[in-house]
Write a structure and sequence with these properties.
Order of helices and strands: HHHHHHHH
Shape: globular
Helix content: over 70%
Oligomer: single chain
Distance between the termini: 45 Å
Radius of gyration: 22 Å
Number of strands: 0
Length: 203
């Protein structure tokens, strides 16, 4: 068991080091984005929502086709991939890179690797469920997709995407400031109260 844990830890460290090397040119930008997403300043949440709203209003106003939207998105990614590693050191100053920043960059890369592993793990469990419990797999997948299709039919797709993107951008800050933990605990307490009341009625 200990040998397996050590092997897993070594693989995690190796994958983290590889990701750090791949994202080295993006280090300053990633740290700046991390500070914004974790709400290091009280006005960062408002700035996130404002920028997201402005972007989606622009998309709504221009109303590009799917092909145009994909082409523009890929073009911006290509430009960022070319310009960011070149301009970031000049803007942020690579000589100001401290041990604390390096440690935070290491933590971010480690979290990204863990997230990727979780996604792969969920996919493997889904494939295992398909092989072992085929009926349950198809019933759960089809019902979930029907629910998503119904929601998509009721809500405008761009507005739904805006809500999803806004939630994902606010999620790290909500988690960092304990908002999710607070409301999850409240919901858990309420559920426990309801269960206890139901048990008393049954007695």
């Amino acid at each position: 068991m200990a040998e397996g844990d050590n092997k897993s830890a070594n693989m995690l460290a190796q994958e983290t080091a590889q990701l750090e090397e791949q994202l080295q040119g993006w280090g300053e930008v990633i740290l700046a984005g991390d500070r914004v997403l974790r709400w290091e300043k009280p006005w960062f949440p408002g700035a996130l929502i404002g920028a997201t709203t402005l972007l989606f209003m622009l998309i709504y106003y221009l109303d590009p086709s799917v092909l145009t939207g994909l082409s523009c998105a890929v073009m911006l990614l290509c430009l960022a991939d070319y310009l960011v590693p070149t301009l970031a050191p000049r803007v942020f100053g690579s000589n100001k890179w401290t041990t604390e920043q390096q440690q935070r960059f290491h933590e971010i890369c480690g979290n990204l690797v863990k997230t990727r592993r979780r996604i792969v793990g969920w996919w493997k469990r889904l494939c295992t469920l398909k092989e072992e419990k085929t009926k349950m797999y198809f019933a759960s997948v089809i019902s979930s997709l029907l629910a998503v299709a119904w929601i998509g039919q009721q809500v405008h797709n761009l507005f739904l995407t805006y809500l999803m993107v806004s939630f994902l951008l606010l999620l790290p800050g909500l988690n960092q400031h304990g908002v999710i933990t607070k409301y999850a605990s409240m919901a858990k307490r309420e559920i426990n109260k309801l269960l206890k009341q139901k048990e008393k009625k049954n007695e």
